[in-house]
Write a structure and sequence with these properties.
- By secondary structure, the protein is mainly beta.
- The protein has a single domain, classed as Immunoglobulin-like (Sandwich).
- The chain is built from two helices and ten strands.
- The strands form two sheets. Strands 1, 2, 5, 6, 7 and 10 form a six-stranded antiparallel beta sheet that branches. A four-stranded antiparallel beta sheet has the order 4-3-8-9, with no helix packed on it.
């Protein structure tokens, strides 16, 4: 029984300004989930140029009987993050001829009272429990749940 290929859903999150100050580094996490088969490439770019330094990618994990998920983490020094560069996570899934590009413009700031939030992955299967991404306050404005 061979199932039809499924493209990934991609979410790009970043550490909060408070965590950047606390750890003197910034982290962006690119999450890809719901894809099948397990043939996926994640590439990071800074101002449209490929980067490999500071990148740690996890092996794919089977989500259910068919689909997979994976993540790739980019860590950069705080001073570099504050430069206003555009960081891009580019996800390629050859079986569905899909390329997904997600961007973060670094250097933005929130006020101290804006919110303490976390991002969660919308369930890709029948699961209804949100998943917290990590111990860091990782978020992107479009993925904030209060």
């Amino acid at each position: 029984n061979v199932s039809k290929p499924s493209p990934p859903v991609v979410i790009l999150t970043q550490t909060s300004p408070e965590d950047i100050t606390r750890h003197n580094q910034a982290t962006a996490v690119c999450l890809a989930f719901g894809f099948h088969p397990d043939i996926l490439r994640v590439k990071w770019l800074r101002d449209w140029l490929p980067i490999t330094s500071g990148v740690v990618s996890s092996p794919s994990v089977k989500e259910d009987n068919v689909t997979f998920s994976t993540s790739s983490r980019l860590t950069v020094p705080a001073r570099e993050w504050r430069s206003g560069a555009v960081y891009t996570c580019q996800v390629s899934h050859e079986p569905t001829h899909t390329i997904i590009v997600k961007n973060i413009t670094s250097g933005w700031k929130l006020g101290p009272r804006d919110c303490g939030c976390f991002a969660h992955i919308p369930p890709a299967s029948s699961t209804t429990t949100p998943t917290e991404l990590s111990d860091h306050n990782l978020y992107q404005p479009g993925q904030i749940y209060i």
